[in-house]
Write a structure and sequence with these properties.
This protein is an alpha/beta fold. It has 19 helices and 27 strands. The chain starts with a helix and ends in a 7-residue tail after the last strand.
C-alpha cells in the first residue's frame, strides 16, 4: 500500500512556512476554499490531471482526489462542487490593452458592422446629446470584414465625404479595430489643420485621393496629427473597472497590458494599494522614455501588479498595410509598409533593459519588421552576454521570413502571438501577401514550436474580443467561428490542445517571469484558476466555442461566478 498522501500532506503543511508578500505566515491545516469533483488539468508534468484542490490563504495546499482534500474541510471552508466541470490554471491574456477594453464600452462600438452605412448610422445615433466642444469617438471598424465593400474606393478604404455630410458640425474620430489606423470626418480634420498640403509624417500615412485630398484615413504615426480631448479621471477609473470586469467574466486571471504610460501606471498603483485590481496585471511601459523615467522594475507587495517590461513598436499592422515587409504588398505594389520607430531606438531600449533588468516587448508584424527587431535585439545582447534570462518578446510575430524562424530560439526570444488573429485575418491575408509568402511565414505556430520557441497567447483586446475560448479555438483549428468552407488556413500550423492550453497558462506565466508562482496547479503556487462549463481538451472541435466561464478565481478568491453580478 502507498503511504498516506493525506497524512504526509498534513504533516508537511503543519511545518511549512510560506513567504507571502515578504511576510512569513505559518499556515493552518484548515482550507479556506476547496474545489471537488472536477476534471482538473494541472499543467504539472508530475501530475497532469486531478479531481480536487484545497486552498489555504492564497496558496494551493493540496492537489489530488476528493479524499485527499476532505481532511482540510472545516466549518468555515467554502466548498465548491465542480460537478464534473473542468478547471485549468488561471488563463492569462498575454497581450491586450486593458483600459481600451473599458473605453470601447464607453464610446461608439463599431465591432462587427457590415459596412460604411452602418458606421454612419452608429455615429449619427451617438451625436444626440453631444455637447459643444465634444467629439464623437469610437473603435472597431474593420473594412476587410464588411459584407458591403462598395465604399472602399481609395487604396482599399472609404472616404470621409458621406460621414462628413451626415455629421458636419461635430468632430468624429473612430479607430480601426487594430488601432493602427483611424477615420476622421471633415470637421475633425479642419480642427486639426489636416488638408491637401499636410505631409505624411515619418512612420505614418495620410491616405489621399487621386486629386491629393485627404480621405480621412490616417495610418499609424499620422494618427498623431489628431488630438482628441482626454477622459476625465472618473472616466478613466470607469474604463479600468469595466475592463477588469470584462476580463474576469472571460476567465482571465492575469493580463499583460501592452503599453501603459506613467499616468496609467499610477492609476494601477492606486488600485493595487486599495486592493481593487481583482486580477493580476503585468505592465509594459509605453515607451523608452517611460522605462528610463521609472529606472527600475517594480512589483506591488500583494502580487497583483508588476511593472517590468517596455512596449516598443517596430512597424504597423497588416490590415492597414503598415506592416513593414521585405517585398511590396501583393495588393498595393507601391507600398512595403514602414518602421514606426527608428531601429536604433529599439536597440537603445534593448541595451537599457539588459543593463537594468527590464524585458523588451516589440510589436513586429511584417517580415522586415520582425527581422529588424531580431537584429536590434541581437546587437544589444552581444554587448551583455552575461544576461542569460532576458526573455525579450516579439509581440504578434505574424509574418516571418523562413530564415528568421530559427533565430527566435537562438536568441531566446518569446513569440507573443494571438491565435485569434490568424483566423480573423484569414479572408484577406493572402491577398495582402500572396499565397506563397503567407504559407512560408504567416502565423507559423508549429514552425516556431518545432524550434523550441515558447509561444504565449492572447487576443490583443479590444482589437479582438478578449475571450480566451475563441483564441484557443482558433489556435487548435485555424478555422473561423462560422465554420465556412474557406476555413483551416494552412492547417498544418495549428497547435495541439495541450500546446494551446500551455500558451495560455504555464508558458504565458513564463512570458512575464511568473512560472514559479503561476501557470500550473501545484502545491505552494498561487491559487489562480479558471473553471469551464465543459472539457475543452476532449469535446469535439465544433463544440469548443460553446464553452462558458463558470468561475474565475484569483488569489484564492472567487472574483467571477456565472449568473451572478460582478463582485463589489
Amino acid at each position: 500500500m502507498r503511504k498516506s498522501v493525506i497524512a504526509a500532506t498534513i504533516a508537511g503543511l503543519m511545518s511549512l512556512v510560506w513567504s507571502d508578500g515578504g511576510e512569513a505566515q505559518i499556515r493552518r491545516s484548515t482550507a479556506d476554499l476547496v474545489l471537488t469533483n472536477g476534471t482538473v488539468y494541472t499543467m504539472d508534468a508530475n501530475r497532469p490531471k486531478a479531481q480536487a484542490v484545497a486552498i489555504i490563504g492564497n496558496r494551493i495546499a493540496v492537489v489530488g482526489v476528493d479524499a485527499d482534500v476532505e481532511p482540510f474541510i472545516g466549518a468555515d471552508t467554502r466548498v465548491i462542487d465542480l460537478q464534473g466541470q473542468t478547471m485549468v490554471p488561471g488563463l492569462k491574456e498575454s497581450h491586450g490593452h486593458l483600459m481600451s477594453i473599458g473605453v470601447a464600452k464607453m464610446t461608439v462600438d463599431l465591432v462587427g458592422i457590415s459596412g460604411y452605412d452602418e458606421l454612419i448610422e452608429r455615429v449619427v445615433a451617438a451625436a444626440d446629446g453631444v455637447g459643444e466642444g465634444e467629439w464623437i469617438t469610437g473603435r472597431g471598424w474593420h473594412e476587410e470584414k464588411w459584407t458591403d465593400r462598395s465604399s472602399l474606393t481609395v487604396r482599399g478604404f472609404m472616404t470621409h465625404h458621406r460621414l462628413s455630410e451626415a455629421v458636419p458640425d461635430i468632430p468624429v474620430y473612430v479607430r480601426r479595430a487594430d488601432g493602427h489606423a483611424a477615420f476622421a470626418n471633415a470637421k475633425a480634420m479642419e480642427l486639426m489643420g489636416i488638408d491637401r498640403n499636410t505631409q505624411s509624417p515619418e512612420g505614418g500615412d495620410i491616405i489621399k485621393d487621386a486629386d491629393g485630398n485627404p480621405t480621412g484615413i490616417l495610418v499609424d504615426k499620422a494618427m498623431g496629427l489628431v488630438s482628441v480631448p482626454g477622459f476625465t479621471e472618473n472616466q478613466r477609473r470607469q474604463a479600468l473597472e469595466l475592463g477588469i470586469q470584462e476580463c474576469l467574466a472571460n476567465g482571465i486571471t492575469m493580463f499583460d497590458d501592452a503599453g501603459v504610460g506613467e499616468d496609467g501606471i499610477d492609476l494601477y498603483k492606486e488600485y493595487a494599494d486599495a486592493g481593487k485590481l481583482d486580477m493580476r496585471i503585468y505592465v509594459m511601459a509605453s515607451s523608452l522614455h517611460t522605462m528610463v523615467a521609472l529606472q527600475k522594475p517594480w512589483s506591488h507587495p500583494d502580487g497583483f501588479l508588476t511593472v517590468r517590461a517596455v512596449k516598443m513598436y517596430g512597424d504597423g499592422a497588416l490590415g492597414s498595410r503598415g506592416a513593414w515587409l521585405l517585398e511590396p504588398y501583393e495588393d498595393d505594389p507601391g507600398n512595403s509598409g514602414f518602421p514606426t520607430t527608428p531601429p536604433d531606438m529599439i536597440y537603445d531600449a534593448a541595451r537599457f533593459a539588459l543593463e537594468h533588468g527590464w524585458q523588451v516587448c516589440t510589436h513586429a508584424i511584417g517580415d522586415r519588421g520582425n527581422r529588424m527587431m531580431l537584429d536590434m535585439y541581437e546587437k544589444a545582447m552581444a554587448e551583455f552576454p552575461h544576461v542569460k534570462d532576458h526573455r525579450f518578446r516579439d509581440e504578434h510575430t505574424q509574418i516571418l521570413d523562413e530564415a528568421d524562424i530559427p533565430r527566435f530560439a537562438q536568441l531566446g526570444v518569446i513569440a507573443s502571438m494571438q491565435g485569434i488573429h490568424a483566423t480573423s485575418d484569414l479572408p484577406w491575408a493572402p491577398d495582402r501577401l500572396g499565397n506563397d509568402r503567407t504559407a512560408e511565414g504567416g502565423y507559423v505556430w508549429q514552425k516556431l514550436l518545432q524550434h523550441g520557441v515558447k509561444i504565449i497567447n492572447g487576443t490583443d483586446a479590444p482589437v479582438e474580443d478578449v475571450s480566451p475560448i475563441a483564441s484557443f479555438y482558433a489556435s487548435v483549428t485555424r478555422e473561423r467561428p462560422d465554420g465556412t468552407p474557406e476555413g483551416g488556413m494552412f492547417g498544418d500550423q495549428r497547435m495541439s490542445r495541450q500546446e494551446a492550453l500551455r500558451s495560455y497558462t504555464l508558458d504565458a506565466a513564463y512570458g512575464s517571469f511568473h512560472e514559479d508562482l503561476l501557470g500550473s496547479i501545484e502545491q505552494g503556487k498561487l491559487a489562480d484558476f479558471t473553471v469551464l462549463s465543459q472539457d475543452i481538451m476532449t469535446v469535439p472541435e465544433n463544440q469548443i466555442l460553446n464553452t462558458e466561464i463558470v468561475y474565475t478565481i484569483v488569489d484564492g478568491k472567487v472574483r467571477y461566478e456565472r449568473g451572478r453580478p460582478p463582485m463589489p
